[in-house]
Every structure is written in structure tokens, then in C-alpha cells.
Design goal:
The protein is α/β, with parallel strands linked by helices. The protein has a domain of 127 residues: Beta-lactamase. A hairpin with a 4-residue loop joins strand 11 and strand 12.
Length: 250
């Protein structure tokens, strides 16, 4: 029987680092990828003062030579554990974590029927060779294929995209002008904090978003990266570097 435990993780790290929670039904939203750490290794300590729980995670960031933050929400205990909480309140580009939202809108509007519909590669060479082929939504989530979601965004259109952004209250809700439609989450004006990402994932988990059960079920399914009798791990990476942004973010 799977443990009735949900931990939501959001991280903000530059450059890349990997994090995985191994003892729970887990959902991860990040500006980065995942590294394997156990709940025990997190070094979680709860501070009962008004500033809330803390995580002594500094040695891990120092060892990797990066600045970052982490926020974990334990749904069963209704407790947040945080490292560098001020950064968790700082908005950043969602990068390819936005694929979660984009996939929901594409399914809801009928732009794409389901996760198995294949979109044809346009023949343009991208930064990663693995992107240079036809894709369906399930594969595009797995390989974080930017061009796939850019096609979906253009088919959705700015008006409908803004409508759902407003309905959900996603980040600062700023998707820019028409010409920004297929890049606003990569290098545009849309920003979201780690705490807001956690809230968005909570609502997806509960089915408390303005999307049909069908759309949310598909998206939750394609986010599964590991499943055992004891836990399910759902995750989406996101990476962008404003200092040196290539033609395609990840």
C-alpha cells in the first residue's frame, strides 16, 4: 500500500542541481533538475518561531557552488520546511516548469486531444539532438522539448492563454505581447515564486484548478517519472540562464 504522504518541493538554483524526495508521493517544481537525496539527508529542523520551519541545507549548496533555495510542503502535517525563505518569495522565470500549465491549457482548449497525439518536427535543428524529431506530449514532457510547447502556445493563442493565466492566477500573470506568445515563459515577463509553484501543484494534486478532470488526470499521469508500490514521483525540470540564454530554454 502506498504511503498517504505528499511532499511538494520547489527549488530555485543556478546553475543546475538535481533533487529527489524518495519516501513520499512527491511533486517537484523547479528552475532546475533533480538529485537523489533522502528525507533523512535533508537535515530538516522545525523552528517553532513565527518565521516558520527551516532546513539546514546550506552545506549542500556550498558544496555545489551555487546560490539557491528549497521549499517543501508536507500536506499531512500542513507544514512548510524552507531553506533561504527570502529567495522562495522571489519571482523567477518558470522556464520549462511552465509545460505543466501549458499542457493543461492545450488539452482543455482542444488544441491537442491527448498525450499521444504526435506533432511533426519542422526540420529545424535545435540545441539538443533529441529534440530533432516528432513528439507527442508525453515524450515532450520527458525530454523537455521546447518547440513542442511553443507550437501548442501558438495554437492556444494569446487571448485564451491570458484567460487561463488569469483564472489560475499563475505568477505575475504577465505573458507580454502577441509576439512573445511562444517565449514568455523562457525569457519574457512571466515570473513566479517557489511558494506560488507549490500552491499551483497543491491545486493540481487536489483537482482544484479551472480545468476538467480529464485534462488534469492526463497531466498528472505524464508527470510521473518513477512509481513503486510505496510511492509515486512526479516531476518537471526547468532551466534558464538570463545571463546567457540560447535560442531554446529547457
Amino acid at each position: 500500500m502506498k504511503k498517504n504522504l505528499l511532499l511538494l518541493l520547489a527549488l530555485s538554483i543556478l546553475p543546475v542541481c538535481l533533487v529527489r524526495q524518495t519516501k513520499a508521493v512527491t511533486e517537484i517544481s523547479a528552475n532546475i533538475s533533480q538529485t537523489k537525496i533522502t528525507e533523512r539527508k535533508l537535515g530538516v529542523t522545525v523552528n517553532k518561531q513565527s518565521i516558520g520551519p527551516k532546513i539546514d541545507f546550506q552545506p549542500h549548496f556550498e558544496r555545489l557552488g551555487v546560490e539557491g533555495s528549497i521549499i517543501i510542503y508536507d500536506r499531512n502535517k500542513d507544514i512548510f520546511y524552507q531553506y533561504n525563505p527570502s529567495r522562495n518569495k522571489t519571482p523567477f522565470l518558470p522556464a520549462s516548469t511552465f509545460k505543466i500549465f501549458n499542457s493543461l491549457v492545450a488539452l482543455e482548449t482542444g488544441v491537442i486531444k491527448d498525450e499521444l497525439v504526435v506533432l511533426t518536427w519542422d526540420g529545424k535543428k535545435r540545441d539538443l539532438d533529441v529534440w530533432n524529431q516528432d513528439y507527442n506530449m508525453r515524450q515532450a514532457i520527458k525530454y523537455s522539448t521546447v518547440w513542442f510547447d511553443q507550437v501548442l502556445a501558438r495554437k492556444i493563442g494569446r487571448e485564451r492563454m491570458q484567460e487561463y493565466i488569469n483564472k489560475v492566477g499563475y505568477g505575475n500573470k504577465n505573458i507580454g505581447a502577441e509576439e512573445d506568445l511562444d517565449r514568455f515563459w523562457l525569457d519574457g515577463e512571466l515570473k513566479i515564486t517557489a511558494k506560488e509553484q507549490i500552491n499551483f501543484l497543491q491545486r493540481l494534486y487536489r483537482g482544484d484548478l479551472p480545468f476538467s478532470e480529464h485534462s488534469m488526470k492526463i497531466v498528472k499521469d505524464i508527470l510521473v517519472v518513477e512509481e513503486t508500490p510505496e510511492y509515486t514521483l512526479r516531476a518537471k525540470t526547468g532551466l534558464t540562464d538570463a545571463r546567457k540564454l540560447s535560442s531554446d530554454g529547457m
